[in-house]
Design brief:
By secondary structure, the chain is mainly alpha-helical. Helix content is 52%, strand content 0%.
Length: 138
């Protein structure tokens, strides 16, 4: 088996780790996905940590957008005029959505901090395009 980190041939050795660099031989390295969608933010940490960094940045962008929408909905409900009756369920739903997306955002940001050493303030097209070019050029 060829080590995906150092490129050493470990022959027919069925060991868990590379004989040269001691890297795990059976660990799959992340590859870029064709599509990333918002519902993937609900995946457990172990699965999210297997996402490619580019995909995590796209997911972070989606989660931040949805969190902003939830915040705006929550503020609109809170600032509704007294003539408009807003039931407690609607208010509680708006607040819970905001809290959920905030927590999901922090999980994705935490994984990115572990990988990159920081969390980007903005995930814009320029950042994503430059990272995509770096990944494609290898």
């Amino acid at each position: 088996m060829i080590c995906s980190y150092c490129g050493s041939d470990n022959g027919g050795n069925y060991a868990e780790n590379c004989g040269f660099c001691d890297a795990p031989l059976k660990k799959q390295r992340p590859t870029m996905k064709e599509f990333v969608y918002l519902n993937q933010c609900e995946l457990p940490f172990d699965q999210l940590s297997n996402f490619h960094t580019y995909d995590l940045l796209v997911l972070l962008r989606l989660v931040r957008e949805e969190r902003s929408k939830s915040y705006n909905l929550m503020r609109t409900v809170q600032k509704a005029p007294e003539e408009v009756v807003v039931d407690l369920d609607t208010s509680a739903f708006a607040e819970s959505e905001y809290r959920i997306y905030t927590a999901r955002m922090k999980v994705v940001e935490g994984i990115l901090i572990d990988r990159m050493g920081y969390k980007p303030k903005r995930v814009d097209d320029k950042l994503l395009e430059s990272l995509r070019k770096k990944v494609e050029n290898g």
